[in-house]
């Protein structure tokens, strides 16, 4: 189902930051003395300099979407296609080299589940990797952070959503400026199946509970698709509004009661959205929002990500990637530590 009500909550009370008061009225230009090119030039320059930056123009709209729906797509982010496509190449190379090293350590890189400090394989043909440091990678991450930060800071200047209110903690006490915690890339290859729906921060967990009390205590993931994503194709699917403290959990529980799993629930499925996003655009989502990676359409799909926090929220140091390096895998019992997918399925695990 497409978006029902885009901006359901209160309109923001204050004007968006980039809307400058110094705007020169084009009508004023008509009153400049004739034959005064300097004055015309000065007025034109003033007019141009008063225009808000492109991302600023949209910051409030994205902030309201992120607040109310749990995700927003910034299609005109400054990351750009060229940088995205180069980093896509870097992802491919890094993945290939990790897979060779995993195989050399005695672990089948496709048919087994494993987690190392460089690469995790939590679903067949979908990997989460750390990118080797490079100027390109740093630029991509910092451009993405800069664009997303406008939106996130704007979000913290808005009234809190009705369904997300907890303690009335004065908003000024915790930092509203996002802090990057970690970065990596999720790469799915031809043959990857649909992920299960998941929230990175489950509703009963510590992060969600603290978020419900402190409006600035938030984690956000910034996804940067590195190839063009079409709507309802092989991108990420989100459940709008599922992050909200008061209404998200009851909606989830009702779906489970009706159908046993979100994946089987017609009503929930009809509400899901898998937005289009060009390579180098951004999808920013609240960590509590339910989502899943869709099945592959026969290509490699890398998506870079930056995890960031506001209000002092954090994740533990071994989060996602454990300390164990690929090279040390051979010291472990492979069957015990890195089970085969087929074995896990036989044992009843839903992957
Ligand atoms: O593949 C995607 O689009 C989403 C990946 C994801 O959510 C995950 O790996 O947890």
Describe the structure.
This protein is an alpha+beta fold. It is built from ten helices and ten strands. It has helices at residues 26-30, 37-49, 54-69, 81-104, 135-155, 206-213, 245-259, 266-271, 334-337, 341-346; strands at 71-74, 114-115, 119-123, 126-129, 179-188, 218-225, 236-238, 282-286, 291-293, 301-310. The strands form two sheets. An eight-stranded antiparallel sheet has the order 1-8-6-10-5-4-3-2. Helix 3 crosses helix 5. Mean pLDDT is 86; it is low at 1-33 and 47-52. 2-oxoglutaric acid binds at residues 128, 186, 188, 235-236, 291, 293, 303.
Structural descriptors:
globular; 10 strands; about 35% helix; two-stranded antiparallel ribbon; single chain; alpha+beta; binds 2-oxoglutaric acid; 10 helices; about 15% strand; disordered N terminus; about 350 residues
């Amino acid at each position: 189902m497409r978006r029902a009500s885009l901006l359901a909550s209160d309109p923001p009370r204050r004007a968006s930051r980039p809307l400058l008061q110094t705007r020169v009225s084009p009508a004023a230009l008509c009153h400049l003395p004739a034959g005064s090119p300097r004055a015309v030039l000065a007025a034109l320059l003033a007019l141009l300099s008063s225009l808000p930056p492109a991302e600023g123009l949209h910051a409030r709209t994205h902030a309201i979407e992120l607040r109310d729906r749990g995700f927003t797509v910034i299609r005109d982010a400054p990351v750009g296609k060229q940088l995205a496509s180069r980093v896509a190449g870097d992802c491919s190379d890094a993945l290939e080299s990790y897979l060779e090293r995993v195989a050399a350590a005695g672990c089948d890189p496709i048919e087994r589940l494993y987690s190392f400090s460089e690469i995790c394989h939590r679903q067949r043909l979908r990997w989460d990797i750390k990118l080797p440091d490079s100027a390109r990678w740093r630029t991509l991450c910092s451009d993405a952070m800069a664009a997303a930060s406008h939106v996130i800071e704007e979000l913290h200047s808005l009234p809190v959503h009705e369904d997300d209110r907890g303690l009335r903690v004065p908003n000024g006490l915790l930092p509203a400026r996002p802090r990057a915690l970690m970065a990596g890339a999720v790469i799915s290859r031809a043959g990857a199946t649909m992920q299960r729906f998941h929230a990175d921060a489950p509703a009963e967990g510590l992060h969600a509970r603290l978020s419900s009390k402190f409006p600035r205590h938030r984690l956000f993931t910034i996804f940067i698709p590195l190839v063009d994503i079409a709507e309802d194709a092989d991108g990420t699917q989100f459940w709008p509004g599922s992050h909200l403290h008061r209404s998200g959990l009851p909606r989830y529980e009702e779906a489970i009661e009706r159908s046993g799993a979100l994946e089987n629930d017609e009503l929930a499925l009809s509400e899901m959205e898998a937005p289009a996003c060009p390579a180098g655009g951004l999808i920013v989502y609240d960590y509590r929002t339910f989502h899943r990676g869709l099945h592959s359409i026969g290509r490699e799909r890398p998506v870079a990500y930056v995890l960031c926090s506001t209000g002092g929220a954090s994740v533990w140091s071994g989060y996602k990637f454990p300390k164990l390096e690929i090279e040390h895998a051979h010291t472990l019992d492979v069957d015990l530590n890195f089970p085969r997918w087929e074995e896990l399925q036989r044992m009843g695990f839903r992957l």
